[in-house]
Amino acid sequence: MKKILVTGFVPFLHYPINPTEQLAKQIDGERIGEYEVISAVLPVEFASSSAALLRKYEEVSPDAVISLGLAAGRDRITPERIAINCSDGDADNSGVVCRDQTIAEDGPAAYFTTLPYRAMINRLLEHGIPAQISNSAGTYLCNNVMYQMLHRLHQENRQDQVRSGFIHIPASHELALLMKRSVPSFALETLHKALRLMILELSGVSGE
């Protein structure tokens, strides 16, 4: 059976919980289509998040990689089209601030996802789950891990064998209740279903 690595992040900034951490833990060990899911939760640190992802990639040797990140304020699930070679963001969980920092000196300006994002979006829409493509993963840790994973695959010339990309998810209801401002939110069960549907699409399996 093929293996898919799914990652989430720990809570960060002013978010007391992170639904991507919950999703990664929930889906670990599931068998979806042709994939067995192996998950990991990454630290929110410029110095160690990508290193943790790449260590897990080396350990698991997956056939596909989906990294998840929280985009509180978005009102739909958004697969990211592109990652850019730049880190710039507020303090991470270690207090480190990045400004205009190149992620990989030997890397190109950007990498495009190799996930079938159009088909994934269509699958979600068919099941009544709002989704659309995003053309910016930002310049914080989400963009960083997406870029680093794709960079490693290109270095190994495995970009055509191992599909990889990043998907932003909205706040969960639980997180929205804890926040001090109003944000769109989804039931965690709906986010879990959406993730399963996208993995099924990647697997080429119809239905749910």
UniProtKB/TrEMBL annotation:
Gene Ontology biological process terms in this record: proteolysis
Name of the molecule in the record: Pyrrolidone-carboxylate peptidase
Complex and partners: Homotetramer.
Cellular-component GO terms for this entry: cytosol
EC number assigned by the record: 3.4.19.3
Subcellular localization: Cytoplasm
Pfam family, one: Peptidase_C15
Keywords: Cytoplasm, Hydrolase, Protease, Thiol protease
Catalysed reactions, as listed in the record: Release of an N-terminal pyroglutamyl group from a polypeptide, the second amino acid generally not being Pro
Entry function: Removes 5-oxoproline from various penultimate amino acid residues except L-proline.
SUPFAM superfamilies hit by this protein: Pyrrolidone carboxyl peptidase (pyroglutamate aminopeptidase)
PANTHER family: PROTEASE FAMILY C15 PYROGLUTAMYL-PEPTIDASE I-RELATED (PTHR23402), PYROGLUTAMYL-PEPTIDASE I (PTHR23402:SF1)
Active site: 80, 142, 168
Gene3D superfamilies reported in the protein's UniProt record: Peptidase C15, pyroglutamyl peptidase I-like
Alphabetized GO MF terms: pyroglutamyl-peptidase activity
Organism the protein comes from: Paenibacillus oceani
Keyword presence, Membrane: no
